[in-house]
Amino acid sequence: MSIDLSGRLRVAEAADESPAVVAQHRIDGPGATLDMREFQQALWSAPDWPEDPYEDPSAAWTQQLPRTVCLTIDTGTRVLARPFEPGRLCIRSAEYGSEVVGHAGLIAAHRDNWLLKALDAFGLSGVAFEMESLRPGLLSAGLGGSATAMTAVCLLANRLAGDPMDGYQVVALAARLENDLGNSLTGTQEQSNVVWGGVRDYVWLPWGVPGEPRQGLGTSLQYELLGPEVYEDVRAHMMIVHTGTTRFSADVNQEWVNTLQREDAFPELKHLPGWAYEYREGLRTADWVRVGASLRGFREIRERLIPAYMAGAEALAEFVRLAGGEAFPLGAGGGGSCLVVAPDPAVLSTVREGLAEGLREIEFELLERGHRFEHC
Q1: 89 in helix, strand or coil?
Q2: Residues near 34 by Cβ (< 8 Å), separated by ≥ 6?
Q3: Tens digit of pLDDT for each residue in 234-257?
Q4: N- or C-end of the chain: fewer Cβ atoms within 10 A?
Q5: What is the mean pLDDT of residues 80-87?
Q6: 305 in Cβ contact with 39 (< 8 Å)
Q7: Pairing status of strand 3-4 against strand 124-125
Q8: Residues facing residue 21 across a β-bridge
Q9: pLDDT category, 1, cuts 50, 70, 90?
Q10: What is the mean predicted confidence (pLDDT) over 53-76?
């Protein structure tokens, strides 16, 4: 299959209606890393599956399953489709100042082509995708940047190809291409956040829903925990602080994957889903003491297993603790940003006023959707 878009996109460009997609970042928390394929599989054990998995809003039967809660925020990536030479494909990045070009149908499967390969997977040609950050300067911030970019590319390519894939397939494609081509070690939380968005709990089902035909990586049970009517209240208890320390998530995630092979570490790892469930329930019931306890419990296990997890965040975490809150490294940890949560919103004012040199707050708002299309 070959879908040449050059003519169609020239017409759209002349009318100032070039197709585009805006994809949003996410905040995670306890449950970070549990979305990685290796963790989904290692920590999953068949539960007592209820007749209606959505009947109980607390989803108490899922307490020991791997899960990640994502909160969609207003930073992210915009991808614009422009006409290009027939038979060829192009990816341009404004933030990196880069351009990668290849022949449709002949894109080699290596790291430099990780985004280009997504276009090729949908049989497209004659198109250039131009990528720009909604808020420059957030590279390696722990907000899921590279996975968000890949998912944006997959969503727009899917739309231009006539939507041959559903949301779960887009999640799986985006995760596998980024991971298998060596750009990063990624799971499925950022991809799921872009596809569905909101404040949402993803219970990972690495082998699909029992008794249903949909199978494989990217499958999840989803619970919308909170609606937009309470976003302002939630936002009052949260802030994001960038530590000024940069470390690629793949490096830290590889360390996390290695812990799965350690006999001494596995008993500790088995406690992580329980803390992720506590985070879910704390958010759902607006119990901010419970949220803080879940951040601390999950974080302390990870600190014991990999001390470098807190790199660049040690002083911030102690400062926040003394002020009456909790700090939690976002994403893989080992640098980037921290989520800061406090039962009393006044604590966040104290943190803002006392941020040490080199630390900076990342302003954000919560959003109900993980992406939006423009002109398509």
Answers
A1: strand
A2: 40, 43, 66, 67, 68, 187, 204, 272, 273, 276
A3: 999 999 999 877 665 567 778 888
A4: N
A5: 97
A6: no
A7: parallel
A8: 79, 373
A9: low
A10: 97
Task: Give the 3-state secondary structure of residue 335.
Answer: coil
Nearest-angstrom CA–CA distance, 271 and 262: 15
Partnered with residue 70 across adjacent β-strands are 200
**224 token code pair:** 């919308």
Every domain of the chain and the residues it spans:
231-362
Amino acid sitting at position 214: R
Q: Which of 313, 310, 294 is nearest to 302 (CA)?
A: 310
Architecture of the CATH domain 231-362: 2-Layer Sandwich (3.30)
CB 342 within 8 A of CB 323: yes
This prediction has a pTM of 0.95
pLDDT band at 95 (very low <50, low <70, confident <90, very high): confident
**Integer Cα distance of 11 and 17 in angstroms:** 8
Residues 313/355, Cβ–Cβ less than 8 Å: no
